[in-house]
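User: For a reading group we're discussing how well predicted structures match intuition. Take YugN-like family protein. Before you show the prediction, I'll give you the sequence so everyone sees exactly what went in.
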Amino acid sequence: MIIENTGLNGMTSELAHLDESAEKLGFVRWQWEYYRATYDLKLEDRTNREEYFLRFNVRAIEGKLESSHAVLQVESVYIGRATFPHGLDYESPVPQPILNAATQRLQELKKLLA
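Assistant: Thanks. Here is the predicted 3D structure of YugN-like family protein, as structure tokens, for the group to look at:
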């Protein structure tokens, strides 16, 4: 599920600042290569024992990710339910408490990056 109207799409940040800000909120930079990266935040629904991952993609617009001074631009923000053995289901409905938690983290990230 793509999360629209976060205000994050198009925002830019140096890699070092983005890593620090994302880490403060629990995001981890998992997948990355020279010009793009994905940050994930694990959210747990204790009611039905499901795990969801809030994810956003970034792309280098100046430099490469091997430099802490590379400038990155946020592209997409989305959330999906974890599936076994690995993968995310982006089509299944997301419980409202999980969406609320995701929205709150995204607002906090936007403040840190502004």
